[in-house]
C-alpha cells in the first residue's frame, strides 16, 4: 500500500508537527520544503544564498526552483512507496508540476490532509513559535505577508484536490494528540493505515 500524502494548512496550523508524526507512522519520508530551504540558508549553500532574501521577506521561492528541489527529493529511493509533503505545493503552478512528475511515474496522490485552524489561532501560535525558536521570518510583518500568500495562493489549491475527492478536512484546534487522532481516523476511512504498530 502506498501513502502519498500532502498536508496543507496555514502557518501555525501545526502541520509541521503533525506531518512528522504521520510520516513516521506510515514509514515514509516527511519532505518539508521550508525546512530544506532553511537548512540550505543555514549551511550557506548556493541554493541557500539564492533563496535567503525571499524567505526572510516571507515571499514564495520561484516555482521552477522549488519544484526541481521536490522532484529530486521524491526521486530518491526512500520515497518510492510514499512521502508526506509539507509546504508544497503552495500554488496552482506547483500543483501542475507535482501532477506532471507523478503522472510521469505512473503514480498519484492518496490523500490531502487539510488542517483547519482559524486565523487568530494561527497568528497566536506563530507568535509563540517566534519567541521559542527565533525564526527570522516570524516577525509580525512577515507573518502577515505569509498568511495573506496562504489565503490568496495556497488555499485555492484545495478546490482542485477537493474536486478529485482527495481532501480530508481535519479540525486543527485541540491538543496535539486529539488532532493526530483525527488525522489517523480520517486516513483510515480511505483505507490508509499506519504500518508501524503503536503509531496511532
Ligand atoms: P514554511 O516553513 O513552509 O513556512 O516555509 C518557509 C519559507 O520557505 C516560505 O515562507 C517560503 O519563502 C519558502 N517556501 C517553502 N515552501 C515553499 C514552496 N512550496 N514554494 C515557494 N516557497 C516556499
TrEMBL record:
Catalytic activity line of the entry: AMP + ATP = 2 ADP
Residues given in the record as AMP binding sites: 33, 38, 59-61, 87-90, 94, 135, 146
Keyword Nucleus: no
Protein keywords: ATP-binding, Cytoplasm, Kinase, Nucleotide biosynthesis, Nucleotide-binding, Transferase
GO cellular component terms attached to this protein's record: cytoplasm
Gene3D superfamilies registered for this protein in UniProt: P-loop containing nucleotide triphosphate hydrolases (3.40.50.300)
Gene Ontology MF annotations: AMP kinase activity; ATP binding
InterPro entries recorded: Adenylat/UMP-CMP_kin, Adenylat_kinase_CS, P-loop_NTPase
CDD domains noted in UniProt: ADK
Enzyme type, top EC level: transferase
HAMAP family the record matches: Adenylate_kinase_Adk
Homology family: Belongs to the adenylate kinase family.
Domain text: Consists of three domains, a large central CORE domain and two small peripheral domains, NMPbind and LID, which undergo movements during catalysis. The LID domain closes over the site of phosphoryl transfer upon ATP binding. Assembling and dissambling the active center during each catalytic cycle provides an effective means to prevent ATP hydrolysis.
Quaternary structure and partners: Monomer.
Protein name stated in the entry: Adenylate kinase
Organism for this UniProt entry: Agromyces protaetiae
Gene: adk
Amino acid at each position: 500500500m502506498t501513502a502519498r500524502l500532502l498536508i496543507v494548512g496555514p502557518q501555525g496550523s501545526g502541520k509541521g508537527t503533525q506531518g512528522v508524526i504521520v510520516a513516521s507512522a506510515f514509514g515514509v519520508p516527511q519532505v518539508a520544503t521550508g525546512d530544506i530551504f532553511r537548512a540550505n540558508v543555514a549551511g550557506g549553500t548556493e541554493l541557500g544564498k539564492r533563496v535567503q532574501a525571499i524567505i526572510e521577506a516571507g515571499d514564495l521561492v520561484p516555482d521552477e526552483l522549488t519544484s526541481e528541489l521536490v522532484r529530486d527529493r521524491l526521486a530518491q529511493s526512500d520515497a518510492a512507496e510514499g512521502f508526506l509533503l509539507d509546504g508544497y505545493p503552495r500554488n496552482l503552478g506547483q500543483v501542475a508540476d507535482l501532477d506532471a512528475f507523478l503522472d510521469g511515474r505512473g503514480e498519484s496522490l492518496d490523500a490531502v490532509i487539510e488542517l483547519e485552524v482559524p486565523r487568530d489561532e494561527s497568528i497566536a501560535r506563530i507568535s509563540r513559535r517566534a519567541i521559542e525558536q527565533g525564526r527570522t521570518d516570524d516577525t509580525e510583518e512577515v507573518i502577515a505577508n505569509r498568511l495573506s500568500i496562504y489565503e490568496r495562493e495556497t488555499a485555492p489549491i484545495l478546490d482542485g484536490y477537493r474536486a478529485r475527492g482527495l481532501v480530508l478536512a481535519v479540525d486543527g484546534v485541540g491538543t496535539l494528540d486529539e488532532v493526530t487522532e483525527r488525522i489517523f481516523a480520517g486516513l483510515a476511512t480511505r483505507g490508509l493505515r499506519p504500518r508501524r504498530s503503536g503509531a496511532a
